[in-house]
Amino acid sequence: GKGMSVTVIRPKSFIGPERLGVFALLYDWAKDGRNFPIPGRGDNLYQYLDVDDLCDAIYLCATLDKGLVNDTFNIGAKEFGTFKGDFQAVLDHAGHGKRVVSIPVAPALWSLRILDRLHLSPLYPWVYETAVKDSFVSIEKAEHVLGWEPRYSNKDALIRNYDWYVANLAAFEHASGVTHRVPWKQGALSVAKRLF
Question: I need a surface site. Which of 41, 56, 74, 139 has the fewest CB within 10 A?
Answer without folding.
Answer: 41
